[in-house]
Amino acid sequence: MLLAMMAAGCGREDAADTATAPDAAPAETAKVLNVYNWSDYIAEDTIANFEKETGIKVTYDVFDSNEVLEAKLMAGNTGYDLVVPSLTFLSRQIQAGVFLPLDKSRLQNYGNLDPAFMALLAQNDTDNTHSIPYLWGTTGIGYNVEKVKEALGEDAPTDSWALVLEPENLAKLKGCGVAFLDTPSEIIPPVLRYLGEEPNSFDEAVIQKAVDRLTELRPSITYFHSSQYINDLANGDICVAVGWSGDIIQAQARAAEAAEANPDKPGVEISYVIPKEGAPMWFDMLAIPKDAQNIDNAYVFLDYLMRPEVMAGIQNYVAYASANQAALPMVDQAILDDPGIYPTEEAKKGLFTLAVLPPEVDRLFTRHWTTLKTGQ
Ligand code: SPD
């Protein structure tokens, strides 16, 4: 199922161009929409084009961690009409009754979504009742090719988690700057996988092994942050980041643009790798909170996002994969061919999804994470 879903060209021949003008919002609805999405996760013109076409004014706020979004959702009254949790977080938020069931008859472009993908996602959102897939990606390693070579030599293990999870390697990279995502739910599983353990283990003793390794690595980690690494990699301020696929590919693009603009300055070459031991893959989902105030407008925006040309424009800008099969013919060939965005058959074998964490494991992760970051 996973493999079929990730075939870059899947369903391309069948892709129907179902682009349509969005429904106009009913006259009594305020022409506003409040969206809460991940940072660096939409094209420059997506919102402006939507506002121009519909007259709906969008307030667009950003976050960079599921934990932050979840805290708001669980507290209620977020003020948002559309939010974008990752699938595993969405799953427990559904259990908590946070989202509105979607009326698919209001989404004319729903048929653009790949059915194989939808079946996979239905494992966490039964019958795809509450959510629509936005973008998906992997968690891997971004690195500055030149600086890593300088620090670790020609044989640097750039295809392996050993690059960042072996303390002696990370100690050598410390001088040029190391960033890790600031989220235990994304970091503990790949550390466990590298250590030969079940990445989604809920066993305290097994989790402790990852924590011990991270504690050993801690003196070499410059910072934990889930978005700052894009610019820092692009500017050469750090040389390695454990981060999200598209974000690192955005760093690559920003570095290339800077090099073009300043041909006299030495350029920065960034690579993204899905380590050979395997890596997390994840799906970010669009959902409407139950207490949303502008539900009609949220539907109009959801349908707009599912138009092939809109989704392809987003993908071409943020370098992530989508589940919109009708968009594929409009996605740049460079994106479709990039193994960091659409993984190779070999890489797909090692990808794993993240588990929905029970509350006690979630609390354990948070406790370990605080100690790791603050030393207390
Ligand atoms: N800059 C946008 C990154 C989006 C990452 N989504 C993360 C999902 C993690 N499970």
Descriptors:
376 residues, alpha/beta, D-Maltodextrin-Binding Protein, domain 2, 2 domains, seven-stranded mixed beta sheet, three-stranded parallel beta sheet, 10 strands, 14% strand, globular, binds spermidine
Poorly predicted sequence stretches spanning 5 or more consecutive residues:
1-22
* Average predicted local confidence, pLDDT: 92
| Distance between the ends | 43 Å
Structural class: alpha/beta
CATH fold-level label of the largest domain: D-Maltodextrin-Binding Protein, domain 2
Instruction: Give the names of the bound compounds.
Output: spermidine
Highest CATH level, the class of the largest domain? Alpha Beta
Rounded to the nearest angstrom, the radius of gyration is 21 Å
CATH architectural type of the largest domain: 3-Layer(aba) Sandwich
How much of the polypeptide forms β-strand, as a percent range? 5-15%
Fourth-level CATH superfamily of the largest domain: Periplasmic binding protein-like II
Shape: globular
| Count of alpha/pi helices | 17
The domain tally reads 2
Brief synopsis:
41% of the residues lie in helices and 14% in strands.
Characterise this structure:
This protein has 376 residues and is α/β, with parallel strands linked by helices. The protein folds into two domains: 198 residues, D-Maltodextrin-Binding Protein, domain 2, CATH 3.40.190.10; 163 residues, Periplasmic binding protein-like II (D-Maltodextrin-Binding Protein, domain 2). It is built from 17 helices and ten strands. Strands 4, 5, 6, 7, 8, 9 and 10 form a seven-stranded mixed beta sheet that branches. Helix 2 links the parallel strand 1 and strand 2. Helix 10 runs parallel beside helix 17 and helix 11 packs parallel to helix 12. It is globular and about 60 Å long. The chain starts with a helix and ends with a helix. The structure holds spermidine. Spermidine (SPD) binds next to strand 9.
